[in-house]
Amino acid sequence: MRAFAGLDLAATHADAGGIEKWIPHRGQMRLIDRVAWVNADMTRGVAMRHVRPDEFWVPGHFPSKPLFPGVLQVETAAQLACYLWVVRKGTPTLAAFLRIEECSFRSMVVPGDDFYVLCEEIKWQKRR
């Protein structure tokens, strides 16, 4: 992923309001705090989520050792993919996540972490 080298991860392409302008996720289910970077044709991007200690899953996943659930990590990435697709389309639209392949979790994510996800379009089809 040399294409992402040298990015300013503190930058903001879209804040919470800018994200909510395009995707329908709200409240506890908007998992992206900001989009840090996108390329010119909106086929690649980086987003950030600050994992807070007061989130709904902390007391139960797992007691005394809270770990950000993998399913929510995948949803965070899916929301970035949705944001990129909808912005490129040019009109807010509901986009549903259809498939995931070869998902890898590189390390644990815990409350207090800034969790970064990156998205790169691999395949485009007319219907999705």
Task: State the main characteristics.
128 residues, alpha+beta, three-stranded antiparallel beta sheet, 2 helices, globular
Largest sheet: 3 strands, antiparallel
How many whole angstroms does the radius of gyration measure?
15 Å
Helix count, per DSSP? 2
What structural class do helix, strand and pairing data support?
Answer: alpha+beta
In N-to-C order, the SSE pattern is HEEHE
Helix % is: 10-25%
Give the strand order, joined by hyphens, for the main sheet: 1-2-3
Distance between the termini: 24 Å
Mean pLDDT: 91
Name the overall outline: globular
Number of strands: 3
Estimated share of beta-strand residues: 5-15%
Catalogue the unreliable spans: none
Task: Describe this entry's structure for a reader.
A three-stranded antiparallel sheet has the order 1-2-3. The protein contains two helices and three strands; from the N terminus they run αββαβ. It has helices spanning 16-20, 70-89; strands at 34-38, 44-50, 114-120. The chain is an alpha+beta fold and 128 residues long. Strand 1 and strand 2 form a beta hairpin. The mean pLDDT is 91. The longest helix is centred in the middle third of the chain and has 20 residues, at 70-89.
Provide a concise account of the structure shown.
The protein is built from two helices and three strands. It has helices spanning 16-20, 70-89, and strands spanning 34-38, 44-50, 114-120.
